[in-house]
Amino acid sequence: MNSRAFVKILCAQKALTYKKVAGILAEKTGKHYTEVSISNKLAKDSFRFSEAFILADALGYDLTLVKRK
Q1: What pLDDT shows up at residue 2?
Q2: What is the per-residue pLDDT for 44?
Q3: What does the alpha-carbon distance between residue 69 and residue 57 come to, in Å, rounded to a whole number?
Q4: pLDDT tier at 63 (50, 70, 90 boundaries)?
Q5: Confidence class of residue 1 from pLDDT cuts 50, 70 and 90?
Q6: How many beta carbons lie within 10 A of that of residue 69, not counting itself?
Q7: E strands along the chain, which residues?
Q8: Which of 18, 20, 50, 64 has the smallest CB count inside 10 Å?
Q9: How far is CA 1 from CA 5, 8, 20, 31, 65, in A?
Q10: Which residue, among 14, 24, 52, 15, has the nearest Cα to 62 in the 3D structure?
Q11: Residue 10: which residues within 8 A CB-CB, separation 6 or more?
Q12: pLDDT score of 21
């Protein structure tokens, strides 16, 4: 799964727009994010794991590693 699919799943589950995602990331990191910058990062596959982790945490999700069986 790439970052675009991950963010799209989170957005669908929580009914979020990229504008709301940008607001969450800006609030949590203190960096400037916009709807366009989020869209561009996802299109270029340059959305960082740290950003995905921050977003998931802000939405109440834990990211854990699970060994395959």
Answers
A1: 85
A2: 93
A3: 26
A4: confident
A5: confident
A6: 3
A7: none
A8: 64
A9: 6, 11, 22, 26, 14
A10: 52
A11: 16, 55, 56, 59, 61
A12: 95
DSSP 65: -
The encoded tokens of residue 59 equal 């939405």
- 8 token code pair: 């799209």
The single residue listed with the structure tokens 């970052």 is: 3
Asked if 24 and 55 touch (Cβ cutoff 8 Å), the reply is yes
Q: What is the pLDDT of residues 10-56, one digit of tens each?
A: 999 999 999 999 999 999 999 999 999 999 999 999 999 899 999 99
Single-letter amino acid code for the residue at 11: C
- Alpha-carbon distance of 59 to 69, in angstroms, equals 28
CA 68/CA 25 separation, integer angstroms: 31
